[in-house]
Amino acid sequence: MDKTVSKMTEQDLAHLGGGVLAYVREIEGKDAIKLLGEKIAVPAKGKLFCLYNADGTPISISGTREAAIGSALEHELVPASVH
């Protein structure tokens, strides 16, 4: 069994799945504040859901997993969940 590990660049990840793959990950309010700045009004320990492009670029932040998946579909992306 070959145990060679290949590394993917951000560009490789961005084109993963033909460029239409995105993932949803649960984040805390403090992570949203880091992404969007101090002006947003969210509790630091509140649970939110962030939609990311396959390369890790954040696309949107939603209050529910369903809304994040809806955002993916609106952007014509195929959503995947990451735990």
Number of strands: 4
**Structural class determined from secondary elements:** alpha+beta
Alpha carbon gyration radius: 14 Å
Mean pLDDT rating: 83
Q: Which oligomerization state do the chains in this entry correspond to?
A: single chain
The low-confidence parts are none
Q: Biggest sheet: strands, sense, closure?
A: 4 strands, mixed
Number of helical stretches of at least 4 residues = 3
Distance between the termini: 28 Å
Shape: globular
Please write the string of helix (H) and strand (E) elements. HEHEEHE
Q: In percent terms, what proportion of residues is strand?
A: 25-35%
Adjacency order of strands in the biggest sheet:
3-2-1-4
Share of helix among residues?
25-40%
Structure commentary:
By secondary structure, the protein is of the alpha+beta class. 28% of the residues lie in helices and 30% in strands. The chain has helices spanning 10-14, 29-36, 65-74, and strands at residues 21-28, 47-53, 58-62, 78-82. Strands 3-2-1-4 form a 4-stranded mixed beta sheet. The longest helix is centred in the last third of the chain and has 10 residues, at 65-74. The two termini are 28 Å apart. The mean pLDDT is 83.
